[in-house]
Amino acid sequence: MSIRKRTWKAANGENKTAWVVDYVDQGGKRRLKTFERKKDADDFHATAKVEVKAGIHTADSASITVAEAGELWLAACVNAGLERTTVDAYRSHVHLHINPFLGRRKLSELTVPMVADFETKLRTGTDTEKPRSLAMVKRVRSDLGAILSEMQEIGLVARNVVREMRSRRHHGKERQAERRAKAKLKIGVDIPAREEIKAIVTAAQGWWRPLLLTAIFTGLRASELRGLRWTNVDLSKRELHVRERADEYKQLGRPKSGSGERTVPLTPLVVGVLREWKLKCPKGDLGIVFPTTKGGIAGLQSLVRSGFVPAQIAAGVTIDVPGANGAAVKRAKYPGLHALRHFYASWCINRKADGGLELPPKVVQERLGHSTIAMTLDVYGHLFPRHDDSEELAAAERALLA
Questions:
Q1: CB 355 within 8 Å of CB 194
Q2: Any alpha helices (H) in 62-125, and if so which ranges?
Q3: Where does residue 369 rank: exposed (0-12), middle (13-18), buried (19+ CB within 10 A)?
Q4: Coil, strand or helix at 368
Q5: pTM above 0.85, yes or no
Q6: Pairing verdict, β 328-332 and 318-322
C-alpha cells in the first residue's frame, strides 16, 4: 500500500497534480483512489490499511448506492416474512425520505457528518419539502441504520455510520426533545371522560354496541378487534384471548410482539352483550366476532365512520366546527378507536374511589399488551395515583407521630 504523486498536463496546457493511493484489498484485488490533496490521501491510506487488515474494506468502485441498498433491504424484509403493512412503511421511508437526499450516494462515501446533515435537512425541510416530525426523523434514521447493517452483513459496506453517531449524550438530548414535543394525554381531550363514556355506552345500539362496549372495557387495539375470532372468546370464563390481529389489507396475523398475545377479562355487561351478539353475528369461514355483513374482516375506517362516530354524535360527545356557510357544525369529538383504548388504560389506573380498577403498573402493562413497562409508564405514568394528597399526607403524619 503506497501513496504516489501524479502530475500531468491538461489539454489547455495547465499542469495538474493529484495523489494516488495504490493498495490491494482483502480480496487480493488492486485498487487505486485519487485525491486532490495529500492530506486526504494520507487519511484514506491510514483508514484503508486498518480496514483491509480487518477484512472489512469496501472500495468505492465496488460499492453500491444508498438507493440500491434500500431495495436490497426491502427485499430482505419481504423474504423475512414481515407484515405487508410494515414493509410498505419501510418502502415509504426509503422512497420519500432517504432517497431524495442520499439515494445517489455510494455506501462507502457515507460519513457521520453527512448523516447528521441529512437529519438536519429532514427536521428543517427544504424548498420543496415540509419539515419532518422528531418521531419521523427517528424512524427514518433507524431505517437507514438497518439498511447499512444489512449491507454490512453481506459485505457491501465496511461501516455503519448511523450506529457510530448515536452517542449516549446524543440519545439523552434526543429523549428530552421528544418528551418536550410529546404532550401528556389529557382527560377530555385525548382520553374520553367518564361521563362521555357513560353517554356512549347508553347511545351505542344495534350492530355497533357489541364492538364499542368490547373496545371500551378491554382496551384492544383496533387491529385486534378486527381480527378477534369467536374461538378466542371464552364467555363461560369471562375472558378473551388476543392471538391475532388484522392488518390494513385485511390479512390475519399474530401480534407484532409476544407481549401482544394476552388474556383480557370481560365485564358482566360485555359478556351479556356478546352472548346476544353471537346469535346475530354474520357467519363466515373465519369466525370473526365483528365482521362485515358477509362475515369477512371489516376495514378500520368503516368501523370508525359507521360505528364510533355516529355513537358519539348520538351521545352528544361532539365539538363545534365551522360549516360551509359559517354556521357551527357538530362533529364527533374523538376521531379514532384508539381513544377508547386510552380510556381503558385510564380506567385500569384510576382509584377505586373514582370508579377505576386501581391496578398496579405491571398488570396495566399486561392488560394493554405493551412490550415493556417503560412504554406503559411513558404514555400513562402521569395518570397513576400520586398517593400524596393532603388527606393521605395528614393521615400518614398522624400515624407516624402517634
A1: yes
A2: 66-79, 84-93, 99-102, 112-124
A3: buried
A4: helix
A5: no
A6: antiparallel
Cβ atoms < 10 Å from Cβ of 169: 8
Task: Write out the DSSP string of 294-318.
Answer: TSSBPPHHHHIIIIIHHHHHHHT-E
Phi, psi for residue 279 in degrees, rounded to 5: -75, -30
Q: What is the pLDDT of residues 198-233, one digit of tens each?
A: 999 999 999 999 999 999 999 999 999 999 999 999
Among 156, 164, 162, 161, smallest CA distance to 60 is for 156
Please state the domain extents for the chain.
Answer: 2-57, 66-181, 194-383
**Which pLDDT tens digit goes with each residue over 259-290?**
999 999 999 999 999 999 999 999 999 999 99
Q: Does an H or E element contain 264, and which?
A: strand 262-265
pLDDT value of position 400 = 79
What is d(CA 369, CA 355) in angstroms, rounded to the nearest whole number?
A: 23
Residue indicated by cell numbers 490521501: 41
**Identity of the residue numbered 236:** S
Same fold, 66-181 and 194-383: no
Decide: 347 and 340 in contact? Cβ < 8 Å: no
Task: Mention the CATH class of domain 194-383.
Answer: mainly alpha
Q: Are strands 2-9 and 245-246 parallel, antiparallel or unpaired?
A: unpaired
User: If we measure between CA atoms, which residue out of 74, 77, 128 comes closest to residue 101?
Assistant: 128
**Is 237 strand, coil or helix?**
coil
**Domain 66-181: assigned CATH number:** 1.10.150
pLDDT of 168 above 50: no
Q: Are 332 and 308 in contact (CB under 8 A)?
A: yes
Three cell numbers written together for 319 = 365539538
Question: Angle, to 10 degrees, between the axis of helix 361-368 and the axis of helix 373-380?
Answer: 100
